[in-house]
Amino acid sequence: MPIRVMLVDDQVLLRTGFKMVLAAQPDMEVVAEAGDGVEALETLRSTAVDVVLMDVRMPRMDGVETTSRICRDGEGGPGEPKVLILTTFDLDEYAFTGLKAGAAGFLLKDVPPDELLSAIRSVHSGDAVVAPSTTRRLLDRFSALLPVRRRTAAHPELDQLTGREREVLVLIAQGLSNGEIAAQLVVSEATVKTHVGRILAKLQLRDRVQAVVLAYEIGLVQARGA
User: Fold this and answer.
1) Where in 97-194 does DSSP place strands (E)?
2) CB neighbourhood size of 177 (10 A)
3) How many CB atoms lie within 10 A of CB 196?
4) pLDDT tens string 100-138
5) How far apart are CA 224 and CA 178, in angstroms?
6) In the sheet where 28-34 sits, what is the strand order?
7) C-alpha angle 54-176-100 in degrees, rounded to nearest 5
8) Which residue, among 72, 93, 22, has the nearest Cα to 204 in the 3D structure?
9) When you count CB atoms within 10 A of the terminal residue's CB, does the N or C end of the chain come out lower?
10) Dihedral angle of Cα 209, 16, 65, 44, to the nearest 10 degrees
């Protein structure tokens, strides 16, 4: 079955461009479109969707609120879709809050077609699409939006992590890939993947993007210049 994609953007020309790219793929199908968050939620009630490409700035309901209602409030309809935030990066400071709201990642609006397709497939398979280094740059830019929470009060489950798992979490938040973490800790990449999986399970996080957000929120790491 092809990946069912929904396009949510108030710019018709942008939706048309994305639709042309996706329509040329044998494993993808655009099953729905919407011009804002309100229309998107209404459509999702009756349409099964796997991945939503979500704009941030839209009338009536923006992409952050819509993402939260899909990912956190269960309003994604029968398909329980994953959400990719679409952002211009330099302008949409609150795209970061979209990641906090449950988005699986973010894309630039001028993303090359091959990267767009790869991102959709990755999200559909359960992965996050934000590269570690890109996550770090985004957090460095928008860390002021993060309310710092006291670790013991807000996340006592951190105490479930082993010393090595805590070390891996810090390195993830510093923007290192699994391979780079493996090299630094002198372990195999498979071992790092195992640690990452255990960290996500213990902290009840969906992907490494949320792990990075959490690490910043609780003060395990700080943005450059902080």
Assistant:
1) 105-108
2) 16
3) 19
4) 788 888 877 887 888 889 889 888 877 666 655 566 666
5) 21
6) 28-34, 3-8, 51-55, 82-87, 105-108
7) 30
8) 72
9) N
10) -100
